[in-house]
Amino acid sequence: MAAPMPAPENDFGAADLGAADPGAADLGASIISRWATPIQARPGRAIYLQGDPADYCYYLVSGRVSPIRYRADDSRLALEEAGPGSILALAECYLGLSYQSDALALERCQILRLGRGGLERLLETTSSAAFLLRSLARSQVSLHSRLDSASVLERLCAYLLAQGQGSDSGSSDSLGSGRGTKRLTITQEALARAVGATRETVNRHLQGLERAGVLETGRGEILIYRDDELSRMAGE
C-alpha cells in the first residue's frame, strides 16, 4: 500500500447503541441488529483493509467513514464518505471476496458488524432483501459517480505522487535546476497510458504544473518539487 493505515482493531469493544444519535437507529438498524454484533471504532482506526477477506459487512449507525481505494500503481482514490445508514462492503461479504478498499473511521463510529451467515439469513426475508438491495444500488451509483468525476489532472497528480514516494531524494539533478527533490524515470507516453489519457492531454497538464513550479520535465524523466501541491490537486 502507498500509505499504511493504523492496523484494524481486533477488539473494537461493545458499542452502546443507546448512546448513539436516536435518529441514526433507524429501520436499517432494527432489521440488521438481530443477526449483527454491535461494535465501535475510534477516529483514525481502520475498520477493514483492502485485500483482507471480506468476512463481514458493516452497517453504520452513527459517525463517518472514508473508504479509500488503492490502485495497482499505489495511487489512492478517496471514495464518497459513508454516513449513518450506509452499509460498507456488502457486495464483497456476500460474494466471499476480499475487501475492495480500506475503510477509515473519521470520527467515533457506532457500527453493526454482520457476518456472511447473518447476511444470508437476512436475505431470506423479503423486506430485508429489499432493504439490502437498495443499499447496494445506492453504493454502486455513488462509486461510479466518483470514478467518473476524477479528472485527468487528478489522476495524473495522484500517480506522480504515488510514484514519487519511492524515488530518490536529493538536491541535484540532470536537468540542471538544482532544486529537484524526487526523480521519476518515465516517458510521457507511458504516463499517459498509466492515467488513461492521451499524450497530448498529459503534456498540457505537465506544462501547467511546470509553470506553477510543482515539477520539471526532461527527456524521459520528471523532477517533483511540491508533493503538497500534487496531493492538493489529486484531491487527497
Structure commentary:
The chain has about 240 residues and is an alpha+beta fold. Helix content is about 35%, strand content about 20%. It contains eight helices and eleven strands. The protein has helices at about 25-30, 90-95, 115-120, 125-150, 150-165, 190-195, 200-210, 225-235, and strands spanning about 35-40, 45-50, 55-60, 65-70, 75-80, 85-90, 100-105, 110-115, 180-185, 215-220, 220-225. A four-stranded antiparallel β-sheet has the order 1-8-3-6. Strands 2-7-4-5 form a four-stranded antiparallel β-sheet. It has a three-stranded antiparallel β-sheet with strand order 9-11-10. A hairpin with a 5-residue loop joins strand 4 (about 65-70) and strand 5 (about 75-80). Helix 5 (about 150-165) crosses helix 6 and helix 5 packs antiparallel against helix 8 (about 225-235). The longest helix is centred in the middle third of the chain and has 24 residues, at about 125-150. The radius of gyration is 21 Å and the shape is elongated. The chain starts with about 25 loop residues before the first helix and ends with a helix. Residues about 1-25 and about 170-180 have low confidence and may be disordered.
